[in-house]
Amino acid sequence: MTKTHALTNRIFRGSQAIRRGQLTHGQLRGPDWQRLFRDVYADRALAPTHRLRCVAASRFLLPSGAAIAGRSAAHLFGVPYVGAEDPVEVLTPRHFGPVHGLKIRRGALPASETVRDGRLVVTSPLRTAWDLARWLDLAEAMVFLDVLAAKRHISGASLVAYASSMQTPRGRARAIRAAELIEPGSESPQESKLRMRLVLSGVPRPVVQHIITRDGEFVAPVDLAWPESMIALEYDGAWHGQPSQIEHDRQRLNRLLGADWLVFHVTARQMREELPDIAAQIKAAIRARQGTHEVASTRRKRGN
């Protein structure tokens, strides 16, 4: 192991290691090393994370002036929803690539819109948010923007100001729309997507993680709510547990709420296949309940 000692806990170019006599071709293909990109390897002892791939790409693949961007940049700022094997997203002001394992986007990138994370050059949080809002559909972008806001890297107001200051109008309206819909309280990617898809379907913007009370006493938290209409929505994702637990939670919530609140339950399958119907049902329920409240209010006024 004396020949390979210099590569312990290191990221390196395989061709250089072979040329220097640190490894043979056979050893490079062995179990002690992991391949990150073409001719870029790392010690197997290093955890195979997306950050490791970002570091490797930045050190050995990116040209001068390029930066880690998009979802990869958001991940480096603390958004967990990027897998170890997902492509590393980069932004470069000049042409290069393609490179297997990189998602390369071209665009102007002033140094003032980048930050350093150790040796990594990363688009700034606001530039990252701006790019995500332009590159992704709104529902997908909101998954990342909600977390960036929750971690206080950005806010809706700061993204609106940033987008408004951009000289190019391309994507400005889209980014401002996304900024206005950011909800730092959202607790999962699917809840963010569901909220956005409902809003884009014409459903009034819901309150996230609403706490329902009765007579001043705590009743239950719900994922999304329209409190004025006393309508709630619960997303039954995989993290809610086994089917028996989901059923128990539904019975508990319905029993606690009684006839006062109308509760919708949406599964992952329904979100994929039945969202237009669900959105229509919620809009109809809101209209019906608003009508009921208006009639009740009128009757109270007449009684006075």
The largest beta-sheet arranges its strands as 9-10-11-12
The beta-strand count equals 12
Helicity level:
40-55%
What top-tier CATH class of the domain at 197-303 fits best? Alpha Beta
Q: How would you characterize the largest beta sheet?
A: 4 strands, mixed
Q: Which of globular, elongated, flat, extended, rod-shaped describes the shape?
A: elongated
Strand content: 15-25%
Number of helices: 12
Q: In terms of structural class, how would the helical and strand content be classed? A: alpha+beta
* Overall mean pLDDT: 89
Helix-strand sequence: EHHEEHEHEEEEHHHHHEEEHEHH
Which superfamily, in CATH terms, is the homologous superfamily of the domain at 197-303?
A: VSR Endonuclease
Low-confidence stretches: none
